[in-house]
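User: For a benchmark we're assembling, each entry needs the component sequences followed by a predicted structure for the full assembly. Here are entry 17's components. Please fill in the structure.
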Amino acid sequence: MAVAVRRRGTSAHLRARRRLGWLFLAPLLVVNVLVIIGPSIAALYYSFTDWSGIGEANWIGLDNYTRLLEDPAFRSGLLHNLQWTAIFLTVPMAMALAGAFLLSRVTRFRLLFRVAFFVPYVIASVVSASIWENLLDPQAGIGSALGIPGLEGTSFFGDPSLALPAVAFVDIWHFWGFLLVLFLASMQSIDRELYEAARVDGAGLWREFRDITLPGIRPTLVFAVVLVTIWSFLTFDYVYIITEGGPAGATETAATLLYKNVFEYNEAGYAAAMGLTLSVVAFVVMAFYGIARKLGWRV
Amino acid sequence: MGSSNMTRREALVRGGAGLLGMTAAGSLLAACGSSGGSGGKAATVAAVEPASGDVTYWYTVTNAKQKAYQQRYDFDAFSAANPNITLETSQKPLDTIGRVTQTALQAGKGPDVVVSDGPAPAAAYARAGSIVALDEYAEKYGWGEKILPWALEAGRLDGKLYSLPMSYESMVLFRNETLFAEKGWSAPRTRAEVEAIATDAMGQGIVPFAAGNAEWKGATEWFVTAFFNNCAGPEAMQEALTGERRWTDPLFEESIVLMADWFRRGWFGGGVEQFFSNRFDPLYAGMARGRYAMNLEGTWAFANMSAFFDGEARYDWSPLPSLRDGVPDDMFALGSGGTWSVNAKAQAAGAAAAYIDWQFNDPRRIAEGVAAAEMQPTPLKLTAADFPAGTDPKVERFYVEFGASTGRGTFGYSTWTFMPPKSNAYLSEEIEKVLIGSLKPADYLSGLDRLFRSELARKDVPPIPPQAS
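Assistant: Structure for entry 17:
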């Protein structure tokens, strides 16, 4: 009897705690409904219309989606997104892993280094982009100022074959510090005794990194891969600020194309279909991640 | 005089582009959609209201000098002259005012005096019922007598007037006069003379034309307008814009082929890749130093030219010569940098119209803005007598010659004023592919023609003023 009373008491206490939890969550949920779910539903509706962005919208069924399948500009944009993803899953990831691993061994000025690498991430993209546009200017940039062969007179953002990697370089400069801090925090949770034991067994730096560090930060690494993949498919700001998708569409991504369809081509309905298609990509990536976790993978 | 600032140059991304972040723009805009558009039919006003009440106005400026001038001689002067009207102004970023206004109008909000990028976007607002017809105000204020006819007519949709142009402008050929004198060149009067100067300049390490689009992608469109009008010719332009001639016509193909050829010779900005990287201020500075010989740009550039040619070097301008036999000389393409309309939700529409009329009711005041701050004037019938003493004679000469030339009924058509929105966006974006050689001129024009036909069928093309017969 006493047990039953205690259980009832515990159950009531739990319910009260849950109610309190929901109470704390409520403001956030309201905001989410207002600024995310509501517009998302509206975007879903408009993706089936010919809405120009102003005035009435007429229902056109799946026309926007069938048009997407045949649109070479959208295909080209997605291809650039894939290239962007490939660049970002390799270059900044490798830089951040190496940087974090080396930094994890530094004991002096660790905070200073961490801040130094992280600072570009908190600089507004407009500012970072302007800095690099000036630095890489073919006439007045560092290449010309220092007379560096290969850099002098090179139009990094004006040459269609260089523009995409050049913009990606600027974004990497801004972004990789974020990954570094993320990986560094994760590495610091690895038991130091594992490294000491490895050293006793004669392991070098590479083996420590490969056999202890990488497995130790695997969940963070996978999470970073998921984030980078999703963000790469939605990338917009640096591309739009620096090249607006040019020259000649060389840096056009799905998101910049979407934007132009809304505000230049007055095809907001079609742009909504593009936006939802991109959301599907993000959803698929997240679904893989979720399923892997459900299956018990240590990610 | 607020007009001075809404030009194609005005949308430069000098302050940095707006950020969309990682969310879909469609969602953002869609969020404002539910309460927007008022029924889909253009709104009208029952009667001209008395000019009193509160008026809100979103504006944009390009430089501090013009901002100070506008505040004092436009906003403050209007408020002093109209004590019954309270004018509330709000400056918006140069590159976002169009988007912000569109989103606000769709949500049933926005300023009382609506600024749009040109007659075609204004027509879209009219169709959505977001702005009112201005015919009764036009009659009340006598706009038909004050405003250049072509500019007034461009704002009509289905016979009703919905927008008034904020400025008028045209493409002209600026030159470094000091450099020209030094090299023994004179203002080119024919295509052969332009080509001879360009070839000579290249041989001496001087880039013929200061040109670049790194800050404003639409800068490439300026050259399409120039080559269409000065190579294909104004008659062909009029016929194409009214649907009587296809954009695939050999005349237009010849224009684009010629333009691409000049680009590939490195005449514009020093090469195609360089063109995509060139920014405006270094171009003007380089031109003043003699690195570039000429600059084919719109008359909004008078302000920049006078700012950079402030030393010993002098500049001057002339119309771009005819680029093909049969195309008239001394011809200007009609251009308007933006338009004003009255919001259908304005509480005091009459007061908003009174503010718009303020921009047209005193030619001398408007001309003073040209003289004092290189403001672009509203499209009034200006004469030399309207300009105060001290006006830059080069600037005054343009407006007087433009008025006389267009008054004779011979003029070209700027694409940013007379092309419908989608065709204009295509024309501006895809030309880059022609310049790098990944799109053939014929294919470029086929795409333009296809898009234009669909917009023409939807009546998205603004009224096209006819040439004198």
